[in-house]
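Module 6 notes. Inverse folding takes a fixed backbone as the condition and produces residue identities as the prediction. Think of it as a translation problem where the source language is geometry and the target language is the twenty amino acids. Below is one complete input and output pair. Work through it position by position during the lab.
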């Protein structure tokens, strides 16, 4: 058993008010509500739009998290923002958040792992807490993915939405609880199947790159689908096995909300009952790095799930890169 672990002390979120419904999309591209619901489970998503930036959502999510815990911003040691849509190329969104919330004693950075961004950030922060270097970390997933979406491409524009979620991680007062284990992977050979080609050092913005629509998300949906189902299911089964658990032992399974069919296929491989699977994709679509913390927020605060000390939660994600992983949490509360 680890001598020191990190536990989730508090959660926060931000969702833009503007809703983009399936019927709105029917007017923009050749699609139908029926197609979108049956293939993805999504009914509507939230849109922040260009202008305010990633920090506009990350900051209120972080503030809510701190307020719920009664923790002052100056008590935060570390801020990690999982995002692929930072406010700007640099400085990092973590720096902007640090300044905007007044976390004057924190250091931190952005972490780019697509839809696995939150899980990679959580695991990184947890290890810094385990090492004793950090006592309290804000882990935020925030993406304004709508700014990278081509609203003429029906294969991608129906899937994604904007949002932010945050958790406050702290050193757990009791051993045997908190973030017990995680398994993370990447396979860069899958990069071409889900990417934004332009805007980096390889294709800096030019008139030509704009004309070629190279600053938008491109995706081979079928390849991503297959890799996501296999990746999330394999890693989730493995983490349960190596901790001597089965799907029956879980109180909640909190999967990345990419596609309802991916969630169902993963839950089936894990043998987890439907009622234990946290699903909010119908309301928000795929919110990239915000997906898991938004689902966790609802699981903890909204759905009367009544988490108790000792309950097991499994989180699992898959994203661009390819990146994927699972994290096992044993709930702690005083
Ligand atoms: N409305 C109507 N038709 C659509 C459509 C839309 N929004 N998007 C695609 N189609 C069409 C395709 O053009 C294709 O037509 P064709 O057979 O004439 O070529 C047909 O529907 C089937 O396309 P396909 O890609 O096989 O559909 P699918 O069942 O795989 O669903 C996705 C497409 C994108 C929903 C699905 O592949 C998926 O969810 N992939 C994973 C995406 C993901 O999770 N990305 C983020 C990872 S973190």
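Target side of the pair, the amino acids:
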């Amino acid at each position: 058993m680890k001598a020191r672990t990190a536990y989730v002390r508090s959660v926060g979120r931000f969702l833009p008010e503007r809703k983009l419904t399936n019927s709105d999309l029917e007017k923009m591209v050749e699609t139908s509500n029926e197609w979108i619901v049956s293939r993805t489970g999504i009914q509507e998503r939230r849109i922040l739009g260009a202008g305010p930036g990633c920090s506009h959502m990350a900051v209120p999510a972080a503030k809510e998290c701190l307020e719920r815990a009664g923790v002052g911003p100056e008590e935060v040691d570390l801020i990690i923002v999982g995002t692929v849509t930072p406010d700007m190329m640099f400085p990092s969104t973590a720096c902007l958040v640090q300044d905007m919330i007044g976390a004057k004693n924190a250091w931190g950075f952005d972490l780019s792992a697509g839809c696995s961004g939150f899980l990679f950030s959580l695991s990184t922060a947890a290890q810094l807490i385990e090492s004793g270097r950090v006592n309290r970390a804000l882990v935020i997933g925030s993406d304004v993915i709508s700014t990278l979406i081509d609203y003429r491409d029906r294969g991608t524009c129906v899937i994604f939405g904007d949002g932010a979620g945050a958790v406050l991680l702290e050193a757990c007062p009791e051993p045997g609880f908190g973030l017990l284990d995680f398994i993370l992977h990447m396979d860069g050979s899958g990069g071409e199947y889900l990417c934004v080609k332009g805007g980096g050092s390889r294709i800096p913005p030019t008139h030509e790159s704009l004309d070629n629509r190279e600053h938008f998300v491109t995706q081979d949906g079928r390849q991503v689908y297959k890799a996501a189902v296999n990746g999330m299911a394999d890693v989730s089964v493995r983490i349960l096995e190596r901790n001597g658990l089965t799907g029956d032992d879980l109180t909640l399974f909190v999967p990345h909300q990419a596609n309802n069919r991916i969630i169902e296929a993963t839950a089936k491989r894990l043998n987890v009952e439907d009622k234990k699977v946290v699903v909010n994709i119908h309301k928000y679509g795929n919110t990239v790095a915000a997906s898991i913390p938004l689902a966790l927020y609802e699981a903890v605060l909204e759905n009367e799930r009544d988490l108790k000390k000792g309950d097991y939660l499994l989180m699992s994600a898959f994203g661009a890169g390819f990146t994927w992983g699972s994290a096992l949490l044993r709930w702690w509360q005083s």
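Reference fact for the lab report: The chain has eleven helices and 13 strands.
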